Amino acid sequence: MRLDKFLKISRIIKRRSVAKEVADKGRIQVNGKLAKSSTDVKIGDQLRIQFGNKILEVGIDELHESTKKEDAAKMCHIINETRLENNGN
Questions:
Q1: What are the residue boundaries of the RNA-binding S4 domain, all occurrences included (predicted)?
Q2: Is the pLDDT at 89 greater than 60, yes or no?
């Protein structure tokens, strides 16, 4: 499954166009390697996503072509969530 589609279906990022933009700006790694929106992801992969001042690390548990809101949470688990300090005063 494409990375941008996974991010939308799992509801990590609400819109696929936003997921594509984040990936193409070099803010997502899959298994430690920089990923583009078209990168294929599979069960067992680990994603590292940088959102502004937050880094989210998740593991992929399930892949579905479509899902209900309740089932989206089962698609991945949070490994780590880190807030970056803003030292630019």
A1: 1-64
A2: no
